[in-house]
Structures are given as structure tokens and as C-alpha cells.
Amino acid sequence: MGIRFITKQIxxxxxxxxxxxxMGLPFVLGLGTSSPLALWLSVIVGVAAFVLTILxxxxxxxxxxxxxxxxxxxxxxxxxVFLLAPVILGFSGIDAWxxxxxxxxxxxxxxxxxxxxxxxxxx
Length: 123
Known about the structure:
Elements lengths: L7 H21 L7 H20 L12 H22 L3 H19 L12
Helix pairs in contact: 1-2, 2-3, 3-4
């Protein structure tokens, strides 16, 4: 059994709750003490993640125009941005920890993605 166990289906089930959390948790946690951008960056990314999920070609996508591989690429980029944002944007305290925790979670999910196997059908 390989360590990569997060399938496209599992990932799809995580997408909507994560997007909603990125939009709501900054208000619940009182983010923005070190910079207003610490609050709004997460909200904006949460809205974008929700739209991305709606547009992704997986079983929970609504419109399904974006390939899942693109979705994974965007998730990886968001993880890197969240990792660097506290340093570059001067976030501190809970603001910084929120982004670092989310960066670790996102990058972990992306790195544990199980590649899909090709299924060949006889003609």
C-alpha cells in the first residue's frame, strides 16, 4: 500500500468544506490583527476555491470545464502562497499561524494525491 491515498473522489469531498472554512474561519478567529489583508486574503481565496471546485471536472463539479490536474496545480500554488504570505506580508500571531497551518494542510493533501490509473477498455 502506497502512502498516496487521497483520491480524486476524496479530494472532491474536501473541497467545498475547505472553501467555506476559508471564507468563514477568519471572522470566527478574529484574523486581521496584524494586517487587514490577513482576514481578506483567506476570504478571497475561499471564494476562488469554491468557484474552482464548481468548475472542476470531478464528480462534485457542477460545470466541469477545468481538468482536475489544473485544480491540483492551483491547490499547490495556494499552499505555497499561504506558506510565504506571513513572511512577505508581515502577518504575525494568529494571522501567521492560520496561514501556516492551512499551507501545511493543503500541501499535505496535494502531496498525498493518488495518481489515477488508466483504464483501458477492449473495443
